[in-house]
Design brief:
The structure is a single chain. 58% of the residues lie in helices and 4% in strands. It contains six helices and two strands. It has a domain at 1-64: Multidrug-efflux Transporter Regulator, Chain: A, Domain 2 (Orthogonal Bundle), CATH 1.10.1660.10. By secondary structure, it is mainly α. The protein has a two-stranded antiparallel ribbon with strand order 1-2. 12% of the residues are buried.
Length: 142
């Protein structure tokens, strides 16, 4: 049996790809993994090595924060002409990086604000005088 036609159950696919069977079903529902062949009266899903590689690709892309729409685009581009320029892939990755950098800036601002609120805490005072509660309420309690 050639590797592309290896016959995996959903559990074996999940194990090979480093995910759960539920994740495989989710990827099928979302259209990032094609419907599997069925064996045994149509009851048992069967997958190929190509399916394992596809799930690994999806998982890695998701680990990097790509949305399912972006993953679909990347999969479509990956399945296209191998000689085609990778400019579209680069554009998707650059747009995603810009989103990540924006989120990092927001998280940095959040960290700085929270650090400031905590630094203003006098500790040991009553809740009515708590600077953290005051800051969360929109005024300084102290």
């Amino acid at each position: 049996m050639s590797p592309i036609h290896a016959d995996f159950t959903i559990g074996q696919l999940a194990e090979q790809a480093g995910c759960t069977a539920e994740a495989v079903r989710f990827y099928e529902r979302e259209g990032v993994l094609p419907a599997p062949t069925r064996r045994g009266g149509g009851r048992y899903r069967r997958y190929s090595t190509a399916d394992v590689e596809r799930v690994r690709f999806v998982r890695r892309a998701r680990d990097l924060g790509f949305s399912l729409d972006e993953v679909r685009e990347l999969l479509a581009l990956a399945a296209g002409e191998p000689e085609r320029s990778c400019d579209e892939v680069d554009a998707i990755a650059r747009a995603h990086l810009a989103q990540v950098e924006s989120k990092l800036a927001q998280l940095t601002a959040l960290r700085d604000e929270l650090s400031g609120v905590i630094a203003d805490c006098r500790g040991g005072v009553g809740i009515g005088d708590c600077r953290i509660i005051g800051a969360l309420s929109g005024h300084d309690a102290g």
